[in-house]
DNA sequence: CCCAGGAATGTTAGCGCTATCGGCAGCGCT
DNA sequence: AGCGCTGCCGATAGCGCTAACATTCCTGGG
């Protein structure tokens, strides 16, 4: 059955003794050249049916698993999409990720994940190391990056999608919405609803650039609706991004700006935390103080009065970005390189 | 400066025109052999200081990023740890993942993530595809897998750590706790606290084997404390794993087992959802019905009366598993291949 | 003053795969 | 009969890197 088609197949296998089954092993077993086995795996239509059947049997018998590192090297394509997100625990991104990988997986791409913990230094290191795998595409969270990051990505000539924000100068492609406009509209809504003393609460330093954008929107709105007055702002960057921080922040706001009638949080996490804290301390929302969030988490519509917040296209960011990347990776030009998915003010009981 | 040390460096670069900077490009620039550049990158101590400095400068000037696929192929090591988790949205695993990748990253390993959505078929496909990257280690969630999965992993000769459960026959190594014992103890606690009509609520079919183990523990406890009586069990597998399912499940339990005095949920997600639903419907917990969970999420200690639940070693599972894998990957034998991290009944207001 | 022995660097031969081209049947057409 | 053409398969030459060995140069002890 196994003729000696392949030469040099004598007693090779030097370096490591425990290397796994290779194309050649399968080829020998099937009595064909390794090239044919490779074809069966990648373009089966170009192989005669009975040869194909024999090869497929051999593959199964050997338990052959193609070595993708070798495949990458030879083909100059990795079928990897490098994905940079700030954090895993913020469950927002997990939805985006789910959308992304669902679409990509259907086309045979794998997601290689890295997180930055909202730290620009780590982002740079991360991207350097991800670049080493020669990904076919890059999914980035945010549009604000170090100069070195932009340079590296540009130089690598890899399709890049930035997401979760908006800019006029994307590295390559863009799928998101304007954090600034969203916050502006939230304040507009509050103004329309009769609130007169809003107080922004969000992380300002750190590497959380999206929170910063929301502040910008808040400040612009404050200038529009209450010109000349000092806008109320509380920096939450000392508090970890968790529900638990809601209590301390609620208290802090009460101390620094007791006159505020609505707390405008930069994220649902803090806002929901504040709702929970208010509940356990007997503070009534929205009677004593109103609260708004940003993100529309699941918890936000189930908690107490329901959180008034901004709903974001979590899932669709992932799906749209994947579609866009697929186009770019195939070399076809997508309908548009900038996709604005918008947002929606979700009005509930808390404000 | 750049002598013609390397031969065959004429006008190579055939196949693809856009290939990136290689070792050889750097070597030419620095006037050394590519081997020396490789050494500077991996074992700088073996290179003379002034050569090293020159090479490092060249690396920077070229913006060189090593091709890890090529490195893998040549060295037979990928510095990748393949990681299989059921889902991203269940935030429990994100803590484990954080612990895992923190420890691994410090040793230069990257995490390649895949999720199964609690589906055995997808787990098998996933592992096949992950195996293609020739990971140096495998992190698995759960201890129950298809025969094919066990065979593949055993054959691949890669260190494997199974987690989040317990078994006497691990594939290789094990870091976890007994879901069964944990649920048994929870019921013991409830029995001791005077409850007499518990009702288990959890997903039974699907591929969620850990939920199944918890049921086993429940049944064993029921047999111990209320022998001869039919244990109350509700299958939640029709309901998505989200807070929102808490309401419907609460209602279902009330209809099927109105006599139950405590609902024993297999996960905090359902339990917290039920707490939220009870709150909005005016059902008092624990007076009208008591509730327990499993997992001790952040929300669980902030919500209403506080959820009585089982605290699990989320983070340490990741850290311990990483440490164990590192040992195995280095070829050193870890202190023990089976690590039981235990659990803890967290008593709060809900039961 | 010579040579053993180590430090520093270079040379060679792959790792497992794919791109590319070349060869050889078998077909229909003039 | 001869021509090209298509379908199928094999041989060859790398992809960018590292392991293993070879070579060169320098040091110091006899």
Automatic annotation (TrEMBL), chains A, B:
<feature type="region of interest" description="Disordered">
    <location>
        <begin position="1"/>
        <end position="25"/>
    </location>
</feature>
<keyword id="KW-0238">DNA-binding</keyword>
<dbReference type="InterPro" id="IPR028082">
    <property type="entry name" value="Peripla_BP_I"/>
</dbReference>
<keyword id="KW-0805">Transcription regulation</keyword>
<dbReference type="Pfam" id="PF00356">
    <property type="entry name" value="LacI"/>
</dbReference>
<protein>
    <submittedName>
        <fullName>LacI family transcriptional regulator</fullName>
    </submittedName>
</protein>
<dbReference type="InterPro" id="IPR010982">
    <property type="entry name" value="Lambda_DNA-bd_dom_sf"/>
</dbReference>
<feature type="domain" description="HTH lacI-type">
    <location>
        <begin position="21"/>
        <end position="75"/>
    </location>
</feature>
<dbReference type="InterPro" id="IPR000843">
    <property type="entry name" value="HTH_LacI"/>
</dbReference>
<dbReference type="GO" id="GO:0003700">
    <property type="term" value="F:DNA-binding transcription factor activity"/>
</dbReference>
<dbReference type="GO" id="GO:0000976">
    <property type="term" value="F:transcription cis-regulatory region binding"/>
</dbReference>
<dbReference type="Pfam" id="PF13377">
    <property type="entry name" value="Peripla_BP_3"/>
</dbReference>
<keyword id="KW-0804">Transcription</keyword>
<dbReference type="InterPro" id="IPR046335">
    <property type="entry name" value="LacI/GalR-like_sensor"/>
</dbReference>
